Amino acid sequence: MTTESVGAKIERRNLSEIEGSKWHVRSYNKGDEHQILELWRLVFHHRRSLEHWRWKFQNNPYLEVQAALAYTPFDQKIVGQYTVLPVRINFRGDSLLGSQVVDLMTHPDVQRQGISLKTAQHCYEALQTNDVSIVFSFFSKTSYPGHVKRLGSKPITPLKQYWLRLNIYSNGLTSKINNFFYSIWLRFRLFKERFVLKHLQSSMTFRLSRDATFHQSKTVPHGYDELWHTIRPYEVLSIWKDSEYLRWRYDQNPDREFDYFYLVEGKQIIALAVVTAEAGSDVTICELLARDRNVLNSRMLIGRILSYYRDGPYRKIRFIGHDIGFFDEVFDTFRSEIWFSIVFCARVFESPELEEYIAHPSNWTLTYGDIDLV
Length: 374
Hints:
The protein is 35% helix and 31% strand. By secondary structure, it is of the alpha+beta class. The protein has two domains: 3-132, Gcn5-related N-acetyltransferase (GNAT) (Aminopeptidase), CATH 3.40.630; 160-340, Aminopeptidase (3-Layer(aba) Sandwich), CATH 3.40.630. Strands 1, 2, 3, 4, 5, 6, 7, 8, 9, 10, 11, 12, 13 and 14 form a 14-stranded mixed sheet that branches. The radius of gyration is 23 Å and the shape is globular.
């Protein structure tokens, strides 16, 4: 059955018809995705492909589909959803099962009837039976108060955006002149950065790997897991980003292309970034990982990425994230601002030790790739 044929059956009904019926809540059943996608179109006013849904939920490597659905029993029409994206959480170097709240939606004609609360409670009960330790999300500033008040989530921190302009877009001759001089300035900046790195080498404990080679790949590079296993003890709380996660999150993503840029010294990867670029828009760094949290090697990698994209049709390069200070040092020469669009929130299920850690922003390492935007 096609999404279009199901869509014809779930067309928007009269308000009185839906309000006059009692909705129930159940877990996802195979085949519900067609109605879910049509509800998505109705609520968000654009389509999402079946391929995207299967990648995101059905092909998730950690758990089967975790979705609580509100439906009207007389016709089995889905009118609400609370779903999560299972992931693994890095807690002081150990792996725990967690989940990220995504794709919340309620049919416009049954809003303010408690569907969000009831489906959330149903979903959370199912998660606990699957030994999920923590549920988190990046909520908008208007939606997170409800989760804090009714569902026990803790607001933890907004993220920070670092950015640098790559081109100046305007019309006609002015644009060409501006871009010419800006290109000269950007080349000078990259030259200056190499000089600064050499100077910092003498004043910091980090070692700049001068013999490192620069590489690019469309898939997770061989040897990446060895890098990850040196990084995870440095992070108190973060997403568990082994090669299995990166392959699913980036390599198998049906909607976007991603590039891996990395530095290799000897046979070891010493720094790696995952990047996506959209012509006429931005270059976005989704992930940045470095052996020993080496700031100099990370800045050298960012400089090589800047050189790669500087002459392309892109407005700016950006990174969005949060940690205890590593990102601030790496992107020291970028402009930065608090990204108030979203607030990171989390809730723990029956783990006093984990509960003690999650509320402190300094314990978390978060990146743009963690957000449900890629």
